[in-house]
Design brief:
The protein is of the alpha+beta class. The chain has ten helices and 21 strands. The chain is globular and about 75 Å long.
Length: 399
């Protein structure tokens, strides 16, 4: 569920080795039991009929005869798999090749081997900047700072290169070195960082004025629960009298993670429930062992999606806090990632989810209890955050 990555078209084309492709697809999907009655072949509504097989072979022949550029059989086969899945017209159902599956697994686990720095690329200039350096990371130890401009990786210039490719070059086997050339102001800086296992920082927190805790959750991955618990415990130890949970621009993630986090806040009862294509319902419930009794606000915006909406919807329906901001994205469906046993995977939509009061918000979103647009103007050199100000005001009035 972490995520929402969507590939919009076939890679370099379709086809090659159609008989092997068909056999592999049939075996994999039959074993997983994910197709409706019948199979990929033979039934009246099969995808690969004799006519489609003939047409695919014709396309393969024509591409081989006329196509100008080089291509590989693997690219063509991956295009075939992608095409089958893209034909569903569901932006959340995606086929991942081996490389994409590896990246997906890193993202959902929340750990990877690298240097612990977040990169950002200017769409116009192609310049890549160090956005965030994780605390106690190889990047921090090497002297890399927020705002540094990344110029070279192991001697290769990176400006205007695809950011994904640059990140791959910086990641690598634990214990190996990567050499980076940076620009800091007008000075060129050379650093060497030793890669190691990094835990993605999905939670940031601080104590605001009047003993109001603030927790920013950027995504819901496997590591997020422990980070959230640690933040909550630290703030409570500091004498927290109210809490703001900021889910703005959080695209979602793991359903189990968000439910375990809500179990730290909600009284005993329903968190969310899902319903699949056969009408089977699955309930996710809170134990009530760690009910949160302080004033609570949840900040959301139009980029708060999926698990973020489960969080906001549960807080809203169970009446334990106030949702503040603008209407959320509106993703009320759940995906499952299926391992295809060959290094590739399929993320497929398997169910709709409903808030405790039975709302499915797909295409609708969560409407905040208190609607507030964000004014990010600067005053005296300090950038304001009117939505956060409103969330803090609500808590102060409830204290």
């Amino acid at each position: 569920m972490n995520e929402e990555h969507q590939k919009s078209s076939f890679r370099k084309g379709l086809l090659a080795g159609i008989l092997m492709t068909a056999a592999i697809a049939a075996i994999v999907f039959a074993c997983l039991g994910v197709f409706r009655s019948g199979s990929l072949f033979g039934s009246s509504d099969a995808v690969l009929t004799s006519d489609t097989k003939t047409k695919l072979e014709t396309l393969e022949s024509l591409i081989g005869k006329y196509y100008l550029h080089d291509y590989t059989t693997a690219d063509m086969q991956n295009g075939l798999y992608e095409g089958l899945v893209n034909g569903l017209g569901d932006k959340y159902t995606v086929y991942y090749d081996e490389e994409e599956t590896k990246a997906l697994n890193e993202m959902t686990s929340g750990t990877y081997s690298g240097i612990g720095a977040v990169l950002s690329q200017d769409k116009t200039t192609g310049v890549i900047t160090i956005l965030t350096v994780y605390k106690d990371s190889p990047a921090e130890e090497a002297g890399i700072k927020n705002g540094d401009v990344l110029y070279k990786v192991d001697g290769t210039e990176v400006t205007n290169r695809d950011l994904t490719d640059v990140v791959k070059d910086i990641k690598g086997e634990e214990g190996t070195d990567v050499n980076l050339t940076l620009y800091r102001d007008t000075a060129e800086v050379e650093v060497t960082a030793t890669r190691r296992s990094i835990e993605i920082q999905t939670v940031d927190y601080e104590m605001k004025d009047d003993s109001i805790g603030y927790i920013k959750v950027s995504e819901f991955e496997e590591v997020t629960l422990d980070q959230f618990k640690a933040a909550l415990s630290d703030l409570e130890g500091q004498g927290m009298k109210g809490l703001v949970v900021d889910l703005r621009d959080n695209p979602g993630g793991n359903v189990d993670t968000v439910c375990d986090m809500l179990d730290q806040l909600l009284p005993k009862g329903l968190i969310v429930y899902t319903q699949d294509k056969n009408g089977k319902i699955k309930n996710y419930n809170s134990t009530g062992d760690d009910t949160f009794g302080l004033p609570l606000t949840v900040l959301v915006n139009g980029n708060s999606a999926s698990a973020s909406e489960i969080f906001a919807g549960a807080v809203q329906d169970r009446g334990i806090g106030t949702v503040v901001g603008t209407t959320t994205y509106g993703k009320g469906v759940v995906q499952s990632i299926i391992d295809l046993q060959d290094g590739t995977s399929l993320k497929v939509t398997i169910a709709e989810y409903y808030t405790p009061n039975g709302r499915n918000i797909d295409g609708i979103g969560i409407t905040p209890d208190v609607e507030a647009e964000n004014d990010t103007s600067q005053t005296d050199g300090t950038q304001s955050d009117s939505q956060l100000d409103k969330a803090l005001e609500i808590i102060r009035n409830a204290m």
